[in-house]
Design a protein that fits this description.
The chain has one helix at residues 3-9; strands spanning 15-18, 21-33, 38-44, 49-53, 58-65, 75-78, 81-98, 107-114, 120-126, 132-140, 145-147. It has 149 residues and is mainly β. The protein has one domain. An eight-stranded antiparallel beta barrel has the order 2-3-4-5-10-9-8-7. Strand 4 and strand 5 (58-65) form a beta hairpin. The chain is globular. The two termini are 13 Å apart. The mean pLDDT is 95.
Length: 149
C-alpha cells in the first residue's frame, strides 16, 4: 500500500496489515508543524498509530506504551534498552477524519529517541491537557503495509 493510498484512499473502518499484524484504521489527524510541513497520524483501534511523512516518504508504525517514561538527559531507558534523543518538533492539529484522540487546534510537542537497532520511542505532549503519551515504533516500507482481502 502506498503513502498516497494511506493518506487519500482508505476510509475509517478499513483493515490492513502492517508487519503482518492487523491494523484497524479509525481515523487520521494532520499535524501542522511549526516549520510549515505536515505530518499525518493514522490511528488504530487498539491505540497504535502510523506516523506518515509524505515529504520524506517515511512511515513509522507505533504501538502505545502504557508505562510513564521520563527522559534522563538525552536518553530514555525502556524495557532494558537505551534510546538516545534524535529529533523534536511541535505543531498544531489541523484537519481530522474519523475517530481520533485529538481535537482541532490542539498544540503538540513530540520528541523521538532512537535505539541502536533503529527502534523509535516517541514522547508526545499535549500543551492543552498537559498529558504525555509514549509510543514505540519502527520504520515501515510500503511493501509491509498490505490490504486484507
Amino acid at each position: 500500500m502506498t503513502i498516497k493510498d494511506l493518506l487519500h484512499a482508505i476510509q475509517p473502518g478499513a483493515e490492513f496489515t502492517v508487519f503482518n499484524e492487523p491494523f484497524s484504521y479509525m481515523g487520521k489527524a494532520e499535524i501542522r508543524l511549526d516549520g510549515g510541513e505536515s505530518r499525518f497520524w493514522l490511528y488504530e483501534r487498539d491505540g497504535g498509530l502510523l506516523a506518515v511523512s509524505a515529504d520524506e516518504e517515511e512511515v513509522i508504525c507505533f504501538t502505545h506504551v502504557e508505562e510513564e517514561l521520563e527522559p534522563q538527559g538525552n536518553t530514555i531507558l525502556y524495557s532494558g534498552k537505551e534510546y538516545e534523543f534524535s529529533y523534536e518538533d511541535a505543531g498544531t492539529v489541523g484537519e481530522d477524519a474519523g475517530d481520533v484522540p485529538l481535537n482541532a487546534d490542539d498544540r503538540l510537542t513530540f520528541s523521538d529517541y532512537e535505539s541502536e537497532d533503529g527502534e523509535v520511542l516517541r514522547m508526545v505532549s499535549s500543551e492543552n491537557t498537559g498529558e504525555t503519551l509514549a509510543y514505540l515504533g519502527n520504520v515501515v516500507v510500503e511493501d509491509d503495509i498490505l490490504p486484507i482481502e
